[in-house]
Sequence to fold (263 residues):
Amino acid sequence: MALEYILLTNLAAILASLLALWCLSLLLRNASIVDIFWGCGFAVVAWMSLWTSGELLPQRLVLTLMVSMWGLRLAGYLAWRNIGKPEDYRYAAMREQHGNRFPIVSLFTVFGLQGVLMWVISLPIQVGISQGQDWHPVRAIGLFLWVAGLFFETVGDFQLARFKADPRNQGCVMNRGLWRYTRHPNYFGDFLVWWGFYFAAAESGSWWWTIIGPLLMSFLLIRVSGVRLLESSLRSRVAGYEDYVRDTSAFFPLPPKQSSSPE
Fold:
């Protein structure tokens, strides 16, 4: 089936899903559910690509399962962390700022924007699944990066959840485990996962232009909605965070600058 048809079909599926999710957010008065869908949306794209690609080849199925494992783990973690909690402060601030206009504003600047980003970022996945007929040597690199990234994400999230579960740690800096070596092991893991998808989906005729996917994700993680946004909030809420910033790598894991043991 033509790649253009598959790409357009996936875009329509993404936008339809997010439109339905937007309607649900209006009923719940909570736009935070869009964050939970982020991982699920990529799984939807992967399975849609597999369904429309025709022949069920092993490399297509492997890539689809890789995306699904990552996406469902992330969605499950965010659902466990957010369901039953108040609306995320970012969306609550938007709701207060825009008042009665918030529903239409959120449709385009939250749900619609996320849909477009999801479609662009997933280009390597869509192309890799739809055209993945031959084994490319760099796919082994992609699998290695994906495994390493999933490890950093999963272990980092687990360590942070366990840290926050102890009331004695409220308002304290998490500087243990993977968090000793990078202030954002979960974002670093996400970074590795998406470069892993890119290489695992490598196609000799198309992988040069689908690099826009991991490049855009890396930019968002490091400069926009990931590290920068979170740290602007943590600096004002967590005691000792400035010292943690001074001693610990922002993104890529490195030995801490001071030899003192974690608190």
